[in-house]
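Pinned message: reference record for Haloacid dehalogenase-like hydrolase superfamily protein
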Amino acid sequence: MNRLFSEFMVQKLGIEEDKVVELNQLLYSMAGLKAIGYEFDNDEYHRYVHGRLPYENLKPDPVLRNLLLSLPFRKLVFSNGDDVHVMKALKRLGIEDCFERIINFETLNPKTNEAEVSCVTGHLSENPVICKPTEVAFEKAFDIAQLNPHKTLFFDDSIRNIQTGKVMGLHTVLVNSG
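Predicted structure (tokens):
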């Protein structure tokens, strides 16, 4: 995923390759790029980055499916990915019907009739892109799902998301993404 994000920065935004690693660590995501003034279409970003992921490596996981279905708790997906990416991954794993709700990029950033969100260096726009690991994204997800963070177990493969989750009162588990 980081490789595809870096390629997007070079090929679509014209950022010099030797600056990509530093910017990637500093900004972390499309929200960071927009916050410092880079303009691009959100859908194009998702198609470029997620459209090139090796989904064929994801296989149905009946053990995971049975485990999820056996748990007597609410289960939700909280992802920075778009609808297409999240559903494709869940379907490939055979777990698309194991969750009560999916909170993703479109949920946190509904399209409006206004022009694309723009930011000026040092000043966030009135409508910045909202995604993990920002506290705003977590607060919005809690509100949408009517969750009490102190009674919620949060699994993620990003240490930044786990750190924010802890700050927000979640019980957290860092999972291996490999």
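Pinned by admin. Summary line: The longest strand covers residues 153-156.
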